[in-house]
Amino acid sequence: MHSIKRKLVNNISAVISVILVTIFLTVDLSVDGWVEDQFNQSLSNKSNYLKTLVEDDNGILEFDFAGEFMSEYEQANATEFYQLWHEQRTFEKSDSLALYPSVELPNLDIPINEFKIIDYVLPNGESGRAMISHFIAQKDDDLPQDNNHFMTMTLTIAAPTAALNKVLIIIDVVFVLTCIIAVFGVRYLVTRIVSRGLYPLNNLNEQIKLLDITGASQTIKSDFPVEEIEPIRNELNKFITTNQQLYQNEKRLTSDIAHELKTPIAELISLSEVALRYPNDERISATYTSDILAISVRMKAIVNNLLLLQRAGSSSIELTKEIITLADFIQQTCNELNFKHPNIKQRLNLTVVPTARVVADRFCLHTILLNLLDNALFYGLTTDPINLHVEQSPDNTTITLCNTLVTPLTAQQLEAIFDPLYQLDSSRTNNQRHGLGLAIVKSICTLNKFTIKAENKPDSRLALILILPN
């Protein structure tokens, strides 16, 4: 599984480790080079010292060497060696070479005042290096000089590299161990730092685990705000609040559906029990069938409205938009309500421009207007007119339906008026009102991207405002 922490630790550790290894490798190579340069410099210093001991005394070469000052060339030690040549003939050897009479140190043909360092196996079998230099013997300053005559000499000194190799190995081991320790140390520190950096995210996850939307209202609280986490926390809180509301609405809806169906089912049971107990009573048998049919029709209306509400909320309705002339369309919808509200023509005042048109789905708009008109006619005072006003602008079409109530709705009632199965007290005693009409309107408006809202107006009037985008 992909891990943000593991990826961050690996990537950061890899980058820092590469930088550290590069630095350590560069330092190691530099130190190795410096140590080798020091070894070579020591050879050069010894060679130069030995050169100063060679003197040209009017054509006679003298070599004034004192073993007590350079004991490494003594026979007793035999660790380092030197050999001098004049005109390709051996002029002088170190006492240490006396142990190896048949051994000659390397002698290369190189220009005067030049030197060359080569790897060389010493006479005693050890690995070493030899420095070969070609030089002119210095003349005695107290004697007359013959500038046209020079005595050239070749000097080779050889020294073991065991100590040098040991130092280089120690340096390499130290740098390798330091590099390994540094890499693991960096990974440990990066892991700790990333873990601390991800603590707010882990804390958020732990708070999410403790959430229970079925209980009381809960939100994810922040002990200390983190710039990257706060947007996630805010969106989660919105999501949690919405789901808690949906859960509570679902519980209420389930309870209301059970309540709505419980009454007609109880009536069916009561009628059936009475008919079974008194099968020969003509008063019961005469109305039994019609009563059963009326109750069944009520139950069918509730179920059909619930199914329509479900379809509207699940976007299963196929929308077929067409141009609709509002004046004719509203009039046809009013005619459908004549059987339910015979005085609809006297109570309803229409203010619609004959040329007003909208582009909408005919079934959806018909369902919305039918429910809004039915709701206004049922709840509105019969003594006051119901006004339906249509106003068009370049951006939208607004349909406003106003009716007068006995008592203005409270803010809480206005907020809940579009909830499923919500009923005012005046409609709870009416078997034909189920509190689903405005909920269906709200769901269909959402599906069609319409806007529906309820507002209180002066003189106890309620306005239902439908806005259709052009």
UniProtKB/TrEMBL annotation:
SMART domains: HATPase_c, HisKA. Residues 256-470 form the Histidine kinase domain. The keyword Ligase does not apply. The keyword Nucleotide-binding applies. It is found in: Cell membrane. Its main location: membrane. GO terms for molecular function: ATP binding; phosphorelay sensor kinase activity. Its EC number is 2.7.13.3. Pfam families: HATPase_c (PF02518), HisKA (PF00512). PANTHER family: SENSOR HISTIDINE KINASE CPXA. This is histidine kinase. It comes from Pseudoalteromonas porphyrae.
